[in-house]
Write a structure and sequence with these properties.
This is FAD-dependent oxidoreductase. The protein is an alpha/beta fold. It has helices spanning about 15-25, 70-80, 120-125, 170-175, 185-195, 215, 260-270, 310, 335-355, 360-365, and strands spanning about 5-10, 30-35, 45-50, 55-60, 80-85, 90-95, 100, 110-115, 135, 140-145, 150-155, 160-165, 200-210, 220-225, 230-235, 245-250, 280-285, 320. It is elongated.
């Protein structure tokens, strides 16, 4: 038999945006639960462990840049070590005519990375929440106005009542997987169905090696290819070159039988025979992640819809709030955009419940620095 319980806020999704919203609302004294369909937190923050417990390989989001102060501050106050992306060395280019080497790193700008992997950001956010706040393996099946003073959030075995709901997942996924009845405005449904999912149509490949042999050849680990399957490649080694790894992106449509062999063959063409036999080869196909990508993900390509004004305004009598990196007006697609969207949703809920100008909880105050 199903049962119903009530909360101030239900957050749908325990990725970076959902956990940001949940921690801010909890810090402000709001009774908040966070429902996550997966058996883990982090969403597109996903890191594979290595033999060194302080080092990890990112299978999802990897970088942050100068001016992304929310990410910088979260890492700093959580004790997460960051380091500069390795840039030194030459670039390799591959096209129909073959492979050639160009002087200097022509691909990478100077981002920073997380020594323990980007998923450690999600762990840090979740650590600030009571242990029963995040409920894993709990997909939301429907959200409906309750006809009185809030929203009913349905899962397979329970109904939760909330004054406010934060949708912290890609909009296209939300409208495909969650039944809203006919409650959402038609133009909002059309927008959500049309909005791309960042990384949603991508396979991210990470190749782990015994050592960074390409650096000894004066290569940066940076490459781009017009023949594929990997279209661009970067060095993913740790801050001291260990663990040694390369990573690259391929379009999801190339992930056919024989994909792994095609990747290692390409890596050998670009970086030499040693690249043909990685210790481990990870191929994270985000298009097949049912809690990240809708069935239409490979057809969604209008990135101008990111940060659309309709996502900035709550709907369903101002009780349903959008929060994912796709909805951010700044740094959309980045971890920073995910944090910003979660922050925006939390502050909107706090302002609504207090009348206006609710003070930001301490966990958000550091993110009020100007960003570029």
């Amino acid at each position: 038999m199903s049962h119903r319980d009530s909360h101030d806020v239900v957050v749908v999704g325990a990725g970076a945006s959902g956990l940001t919203a949940a921690t801010a609302l909890h810090a402000a004294g709001r009774d908040t639960v966070c429902l996550e369909a997966r058996d883990r937190i982090g969403g597109r923050l996903l890191s594979a462990s290595t033999s060194n417990p302080d080092r990890a390989l990112d299978l999802g989001a990897t970088w942050f840049w100068d001016g992304e102060e929310r990410v910088h501050d979260l890492a700093a106050r959580s004790g997460i070590k960051t380091f500069d992306q390795h840039l030194a060395g030459d670039t390799v280019v591959q096209d129909a005519t073959g492979v050639r080497r160009l002087a200097g790193n022509l691909i990478d700008t100077p981002p920073r990375r997380f020594a323990s992997g980007s998923q450690s950001l999600a762990s840090a956010l979740a650590a600030a929440l009571p242990t029963d706040t995040v409920r894993l393996n709990t997909p939301v099946t429907a959200i409906h106005p309750d006809g009185r003073d809030g929203l009913d959030v349905h899962t397979s075995d329970q109904t939760l009542h909330a004054d406010h709901v934060v949708l912290a997942l890609p909009p296209a996924l939300a409208v495909e997987r969650i039944d809203f009845g006919d409650a959402l405005p038609v133009e909002l449904v059309h927008l959500a169905r049309s909005t791309p999912v960042w990384m949603g149509a991508v396979v991210k490949v990470v190749a782990l090696y015994p050592f960074a042999f390409w650096r000894e050849q004066g290569l940066a680990g940076a490459a781009f290819s017009r023949t594929g399957p990997l279209q661009e490649i970067h060095d993913m080694s740790g801050p001291d070159g260990r663990p040694a790894a390369l990573f690259g992106f391929a379009h999801a449509r190339t992930a056919r039988p024989g994909f792994d062999k095609a990747v290692t063959t390409q890596l050998a063409q670009l970086f030499g025979p040693a690249a043909a036999t990685p210790d481990v080869l990870y191929a994270q196909n985000w298009s097949t992640e049912r809690w990240t990508s809708p069935s239409t993900v490979q057809r969604l390509a209008d990135y101008s819809l990111f940060g659309h004004p309709l996502y900035q305004r709550p709907t369903l009598h101002d009780r349903l709030h959008w929060a994912s990196t796709e909805t951010a007006t700044e740094h959309a697609g980045h971890i920073e955009g995910a944090l910003a969207s979660g922050e925006r949703a939390a502050l909107a809920i706090l302002a609504a419940s207090s009348g206006a100008n609710y003070p930001a909880p301490a966990c958000l105050s550091a993110s009020k620095k100007p960003t570029t």
